[in-house]
Every structure is written in C-alpha cells, then in structure tokens.
C-alpha cells in the first residue's frame, strides 16, 4: 500500500489479536508509527497460526480477552506451551478480575482497559517490551 522504507531498527515485533477490525487497525497503525513491527490476527486461532510461522520474531502479544472461537486466556494457555516467556497484554472492556480467574496461577500479564488511547497503548507496549531492554525514548 505505501512505499515507506522500514526503519532499520525495529523496536520489536508485536502480535495484535483483535476481532474488531477498526480497533485492530487503530492499534496497528499506532504501534507501527512508533517503530514496532506489527503482525495482526483476527482470532485466537489465527494468532496460533501466526505463531507457527512468525513465532521466533514475536516478543509480545496484545490480545483482546473476549473473542469468538478462542478467548484471550485460552490463547495464552496455548501460547505458553511453546513460548513460556512470551510477554502478553490483555485488552478488555471488562474488569481485570473478571477474567483473571481463567488464567493459570501466577501468570504474568499487563492489562489495558478499553477504550484506550493511542498513548496508553504505546505506553503499555513500551513497558511490556522494555522490562529487559534498554530502549531510550
């Protein structure tokens, strides 16, 4: 679609799992404009497919909690089988406690309540990715 050269230094690769096209497009653009490489999936099932092909590059998964076919917590359980250290941010219009009980004990994740702003999204991703990287602003 556009011929903008990719920045040489990507900030990292993010897999965005969101069944609402508008939300996914908005989040994808926001992260891409900040230098992240963004892969998109419309469902948990599609996310697992992306993981099979691009899993080695993906450092962070940003996933909606409530999705058809496979919800966020179920997706996380599947992802953990192959990538125990994968970072995850759950996005939800519901309270964190509403889905936390569906997660494995001691699971570490970040939480971004909907609706979120571009700034909140970028900040959450930066914090999740930056816990072991020394990236400066």
Structure description:
The chain has 137 residues and is of the alpha/beta class. The chain has one domain: Rossmann fold, CATH 3.40.50. The protein is built from 5 helices and 5 strands, in the order βαβαβαβαβα. The protein has helices at 21-33, 44-54, 72-82, 96-100, 118-130, and strands spanning 13-17, 37-41, 58-64, 87-92, 110-113. α4 (96-100) links the parallel β4 and β5. The chain is globular, with a radius of gyration of 14 Å.
Secondary structure blueprint with pairings:
Blueprint (H helix, E strand, L loop, with lengths): L12 E5 L3 H13 L3 E5 L2 H11 L3 E7 L7 H11 L4 E6 L3 H5 L9 E4 L4 H13 L7
Parallel strand pairs: 1-2, 1-3, 3-4, 4-5
Helix pairs in contact: 1-5, 2-3
Q: What is the β-strand count?
A: 5
Anisotropy-based shape:
globular
Major sheet strand order: 2-1-3-4-5
Strand content: 15-25%
CATH topology tier name: Rossmann fold
Estimated radius of gyration:
14 Å
In the CATH scheme, the class would be: Alpha Beta
User: How many structural domains does the protein architecture include?
Assistant: 1
CATH architecture term = 3-Layer(aba) Sandwich
The share of residues in helices is 25-40%
Q: Alpha-carbon distance between the termini?
A: 28 Å
The CATH H-level superfamily is: Response regulator
What's the main sheet like? 5 strands, parallel
């Amino acid at each position: 679609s556009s011929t903008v050269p990719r920045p040489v230094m990507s900030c990292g690769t993010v897999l965005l799992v969101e069944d609402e096209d508008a939300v996914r497009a908005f989040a994808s653009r926001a992260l891409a404009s900040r230098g992240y490489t963004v892969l998109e999936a419309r469902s948990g099932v599609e996310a697992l497919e992306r993981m099979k092909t691009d899993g080695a590059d993906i450092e962070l998964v940003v996933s909606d909690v409530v999705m058809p076919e496979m919800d966020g917590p179920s997706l996380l359980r599947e992802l953990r089988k192959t990538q125990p250290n994968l970072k995850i941010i759950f996005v939800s219009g519901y309270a964190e406690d509403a889905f936390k009980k569906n997660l494995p004990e001691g699971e570490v994740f970040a939480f971004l309540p909907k609706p979120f702003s571009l700034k909140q999204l970028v900040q959450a991703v930066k914090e999740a990715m930056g816990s072991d990287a020394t990236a400066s602003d």
